[in-house]
Structure formats: C-alpha cells, structure tokens
Amino acid sequence: MRTSTRTPALVAVLLCAVTLVLGYLNKARCAGPLFDELGRTVRFESVKDADVCYSDIQQLWIGRDINLHRFPFLDGDITAAGHLVGGTVEYPVLSGVLMWLGAVPAHNDAEFLFWSVLLLAPFGLLTAWLLGRLAGWAALLWSVTPPLVLYAFLNWDLPVVATTVGAIAIVATRRWSLRTRGVIAAVLLGIGFCLKLYPGIFLLTLVAYILTRGDHTDRDTTDRDTTATRFDVKGAVAVAAAGAATVVAVNLPFALLGYTGWRASFEFQSNRAADSTSNSIWFWGLRPLLGGYEGTDVTPAYNGLVALLSPLLICGSFAVALVIGWRRYRREGTYPWIAIGGSMLCGFLLLHKVHSPQYTLWLLPLLVLVRIRWSLVAAYLVADVAIGIGVFLWFAATGGQRDMTTALLLTQAGVWGRAILLVVLFVVFARAHRCECAPPHRIPKGPVR
Fold first, then answer.
1. Measuring CA to CA, which residue among 24, 336, 350 is closest to residue 208?
2. Is this structure's pTM higher than 0.85?
3. Which residues of the chain are modeled with pLDDT < 50?
4. Which ranges of 194-336 does DSSP label H, i.e. alpha helix?
5. 10 Å Cβ neighbour count for 101?
6. N or C: fewer beta carbons within 10 Å in the chain?
7. How far apart are CA 296 and CA 288, in angstroms?
8. So what's the pLDDT on residue 433?
9. Where does the chain cross the membrane (predicted)?
10. Torsion of CA 395, 400, 403, 408, to 10 degrees
C-alpha cells in the first residue's frame, strides 16, 4: 500500500500559516501607530533591539528610497564612504524588486511590513507544501519551529528558500527525463541566485548529479542518448547553461539601464566588514586576537585579513565537499547532490564574514530532506534561538538599554554553539547515506521517462 504525503503536506501548510501569523505579530510589535514625517515608527529605535522585534523590512523603509517608491538600481550609486543612495539596495536584483513591490501600496513602515508579509508569506506556505510532499511529517520541522517565527519576516528570504526547495522537488518528480528536470531546476536555482546568492551552491552539485546520470531509477531507461556513455556531458552543460542564462537574463536589464546602481550593490557587499552586526566567528573569534581591545570597532588590518581568509576558506570547504561527493559517487553509484549541497552551505554559513540570523531558513529545509539525528537538529535550533534573541539583546545592552551579562552570554553561546554544530553538520551531510526526499512511492503520478 502506497503512503500518501498529501495529509502531512496539508497539515504542514496549515501549521505554517499559523506560525507565519505569529512571525508577523512578533515583528509588528515594533511598528506604529505614531509615525514621523518620513513614515518611520517614532518608537522604532527605542524598542527594536530591546524588545527583539527588529526586522530589516521595517529598518529599510528609509535610507534606500523605498519610502519614495523608487524602482531599485536604475539611478542608484554608492558613495565614497560606502553608503548606498538613489534606490540601490544591498541585495540581488529580484530581492530589490520584491522590496519595491511591498512598498507600492505603503505610506509608512508599518504598512510596508504588512504588505511585504502578504507578499512573502505564500513562499513560506509553498515551501511547507513542497517539504510535506517530499519528506512527509518531517516537514513540520519547517512549519512549527522557532526560526520561522524569528526570521520569516526579518528579511526577504522566504522566496529564495522556495525556489531552492522547488528545484529539489522538480528533480525528484521523475515526471520528465533527467535532463529536462535538471534544466527546469537550474532555471529555478538561477532565479534563486537573483534573490540571494546561495542557490548557486546547489547548481554546482546539480550539475554533478546530471553529469553522473542521477540515481538508478534515472538510468533505468530506454533512451539511447542517455545510456550511450557513462557520463552525460551534454546534459550537464545544458543544466549549467540554463542556470547561467537565467542569471544573465534577469540581471542584464538592470545592468544596461542602471549599471552604476546595479554594480553598487555588489560593491557594498564586497566592502562590508565583519563587524558587530555580522554574528560571525570572525568578529567574536579573530577580532579580539588581533585587536587587543574591547568594544565593537574593527581595524583595517582585521578587515583585510577577513577579506582574504573568508573567501579562501569558503572555496576550500566547497572543494572538500565536492571531492567527497565525487568519491561517494564512485563508491555508491549516485552523486548525493542535496547532501553535498548541504555540506557546502554549512561551510559558507560558518566561514562567510557575515552570518545574518535569517540564514537559518536556508539550512532548515536541508535538515528536513536529509536524514539527520533529531538530537543534532534540536541542538542547532537551541543555539539558533540563543543567537536570534541574544544578539538583539546585546545590541540593546551596548546602547545601555539592557543588562550586558545575560545578553553577552546568550550571544556567545549562540555564535560558538552554532559554529561547532555547523562543523559537525558539514561532516554529517557529507556522510549522509539516504536522502529523505521523494522516494518513488511518495511522488505525484506520472510516467517515468
């Protein structure tokens, strides 16, 4: 008897809707009802950290011309001091478009938060549905755990998570040929790259999966073209080209119509320091060793070293993960593209100079889809809650609004607990032997080609 995943998927969506409402109510504590002449909540600065209700959505209502309803990037720039002006935002172009869309009907930051929530929430629900169809009841890890309350509307991350999970779901359907599924998934990952950059990781592992002809069910075919050789080079090239072409097609209009503003967003991220807002091992580990001082300032020497070490180590972690994946393919016959992508994501989260709290939403679906011990998942969630709450209390404490002791303890426990667990998860993902995504009896009906 076949096991249906429609019931857990439906439950995951309904519970996700409840969690998203809680997430909005949490952030709305910072919004309204009194506003200044720019539409900024008067009490925002005094409560955003102390009450742990901060969101980038509300913060960026002013400072990026969002309150002026200016379409992003077209006439923007970056100043010599590193400040973005004229409608440029610090995110890839599609995230900028989402920010603009959320602001169209808004006249203050509370309305901007409300309309942005309505825009983003369907992507969270879609992710819940897809995870339910792929992994059954394990999808509740996405729908009912603290990260969705803390981070769903901290930034514009729900759409990129949906595109990544959607790409995984497309590959798992078996409804079309492996090449076709790979190309569609690559387009989704390319769109995701234009929202936030991390789906590019999974495009790399997807290419390896297509090159090695997927798993045994994909190789059980009468298609002469796909069984002629051991590797499907044409398919891998097609998938890589589809992803790259999508990124170029989305970015090209912005680059042509507003090159300076489009380039400024990349320059801003390149110049960003691993400072007190970064939540990274660099700030909490390397900075005290180099600086020999207290406080939240960073030095040029520290910035330069982080700018060198961070990308080098990230690339090194990617190379290690890809090699492990290739060795597993040689040994097991299938390239574990989702699990190896999870390892690479852990390497990025650990070693990138900035680790924004909402990045947990990127990792959460991988904890659903790949078999991970629940004790390890629970430990990561605890560490994440510590940093997700502690860092804002620490910001408030540095401004004299809170006691420093508890805030600093929570923050450091979260930073170092999460860092240790990311190292462990890197290894666990790399060694994971069974992916829980869409075994053949759980996928929608359709011909196997």
1. 336
2. yes
3. 1-2, 222-228, 435-449
4. 199-211, 216-219, 224-227, 233-257, 259-271, 281, 287-291, 300-332
5. 12
6. N
7. 10
8. 67
9. 80-101, 113-142, 148-171, 183-211, 305-326, 333-352, 372-395, 407-430
10. 30
